[in-house]
Amino acid sequence: MPKYLLATLFILLSFLQSNSLWASNIDINAQFSYQHPINYLYTTSENSIESAQLKQEHLWQKSLDGRLNLGLQSKAVWMKFNLTNNTDEIKKLFVVLSNPLIDKLSLYQITNKTVIQHHTIGDTQPLSSRVIKDEALLFSISLAANSSNSIYLKAQSKGALKLPLSIWTPERYVQYKSKLNLLTGLLLGFLLALIISNFLISMLTKNSLFLMGSLYITCLWAILTGYFGLSYRYFNFDAFWLQQINISALFLCAVTLLNPITSKLLKLAQADKLQFKILSISFSLTFIMIFLSPLFSYSNSLIMSFTIGLINMSVCLVITSFHIIKKAKYAKTVFAYQLPIFLTLLHGILLFNGHIFSAITIKSILIVCFLMSSFIVSYLLIVQFITQRDEKAQQQHQLIAEVRAKDGLLEEKLKIQNQAQQDLESKIQERTFELEITLRELEEKNRELEEKNTHDALTGIRNRLYFDKKLAMEFRRSRREQTSLAILMLDIDHFKIINDSLGHLAGDEAIKFVASTIKGCLQRPCDEACRYGGEEFAIILPNTPTDGAIAVAESIRENIEKAKIHTSAGIIEMTISAGVYSAIAKLNQDPNQHTALADKALYQAKETGRNKISSTSEQFLTTDNPQ
Q: What is the largest CA-CA distance in the chain?
């Protein structure tokens, strides 16, 4: 809270007090035998004006400087004083009772023991009954020239009987009233501005604290307007029952609203569950008493509301003091807006019981305390809202920073993952390329190995494994294309004799020569010569009829027969025998049947003298080679 607030309130209090001192220091015409304020006599009695006039002097008591506080008084109070006009002019004066909350006030002006004026006003009387429409209880009296007047006033009220009585000249009262109205308007206007600003902020921010603050200041504003008599003057609808309960109910409402405001500002729901529960119970009891206060009499309602309010504020102050010791945030400021209301309630209870009548008027105390409490509440709510907003913004910035940091880490992680994936893909490509190369090399090696496996190591021509594969392939082609497939089976005649007599090396050289001769006699690329086993050879002749196959076999036989083979053991002369079979492959036929039939023809050639070519038809007919 700004430091200038206390100085402003002090100046304001001094200004209000100076207004009351204007009344005590007013420049009275010296020809008049009265003082200001009036030192009047008073007595409590329900008697009539006639009885009051006859009442003995020792039964009357003296007031102190025109200020009297009898507290809550059930009986009527009579006041009297004398006015003397020693001039030759008629003088007009205002008799003013500064407490507007008197139910009924009657004035009797008596000259020569005759009532020349009688008028009754009060806050339970219609506003139209007042000659001068003023919030104060004001009577206008005229003093005849060279006259002596006795003024009797009878005050009745169910509330506190505070009877500050004074006399004004009309001119000085108008001056005083204009200044007081200006100051009162500024104060109430300031409170109204706080009410509107808090309400608008609550609508904009959806913050319930500002709404409660607006309602709290509204209650204080309504109490002031009621206590000043402004609500009676400007908002009076002859609803006198409302005049009787508004002060007590409004005080309870204001005190009740301080509980949730205090609870939220101190965060009792999170900080201390026990204190929150105690404050909630106090709130509930005070809230219930708001609805019960209209059921009591006016005096009892005032005592009840101020007592309950004082108890509730005591609970709030104790809890707040505990948090001040704990150095909780906002605790000192919360205490600062609670204390003025507590002091106001305490001062009010003492006044109701007639124990004090402060030199500073209750109006001044109400204005200073209410203004201080309202300002501090509004200031604290705004500070709390700004702090929460800054904390929320800071949290949001922190969350944004954390999100950005996480995004940065995620981006870095993604970059690392992408780099790792690229490296992995690169390695995979390298490994794949290497694997492809290896596979190709392996495939080439396999082909080389397969090629080696299909060649005979001694002769260099194809071996039995290749013969079986080639035969199956050509057999399917013969069946598909319906062409003849010829198989030749060749065998060296009497090879065992050569091998035994000349040795294995000579036998190997003889086999190699036969293989070379066979290979030289084959003219087509599709013709294949294979070593079938030992000294036996097999030839596959695709698309070759029997005659063509016999011609090829005969060519091979002749070349070998004519040749003289030079070996390490000497020159060798030898012959071969051959069996031929050629036919179109059939669907349900086994390729090995071609080989078996050719081999059968070879057996026939050997059986019939060797160095021959035999062929076998499908009916197993034998054809001898012509010599």
A: 198
Q: Contact at 8 Å (CB) between 93 and 169?
A: yes
Residues carrying an active site annotation: 535
Contact of 550 with 579, CB cutoff 8 Å = no
Question: Residue 41: is it exposed, middle or buried by C-beta count within 10 angstroms (0-12/13-18/19+)?
Answer: middle
Which residues face 115 on adjacent strands? 110
Banded pLDDT at 18 (limits 50, 70, 90): very low
Give the span between the Cα atoms of 478 and 482, in whole angstroms.
Answer: 5
Residue (of 484, 498, 492) closest to 569 by Cα position: 498
H helix runs in 503-590, sequence order: 504-521, 546-562
User: Tens digit of pLDDT for each residue in 206-245?
Assistant: 888 899 999 999 998 888 888 777 777 776 555 555 555 6
d(CA 505, CA 508): 5
Among candidate residues 372, 345, 594, the one with its CA nearest the CA of residue 467: 594
With vertex at residue 420, the alpha carbon angle to CA 417 and CA 423, rounded to the nearest 5 degrees, is 150
One-letter identity of residue 351: L
The DSSP secondary structure of 144-190, one letter per residue, reads -TTEEEEEEEEEE-SSEEE--EEEE-HHHHHHHHHHHHHHHHHHHHH
- Give the Cα separation of 252 and 228 in Å (integer): 19
How far is Cα 587 from Cα 578, in angstroms, rounded to an integer?
27
What lies within 8 Å, CB to CB, of 219 at 6+ separation is: 250, 251, 253, 254, 257
In the chain, DSSP finds a helix count (H) and a strand count (E) of: 16, 19
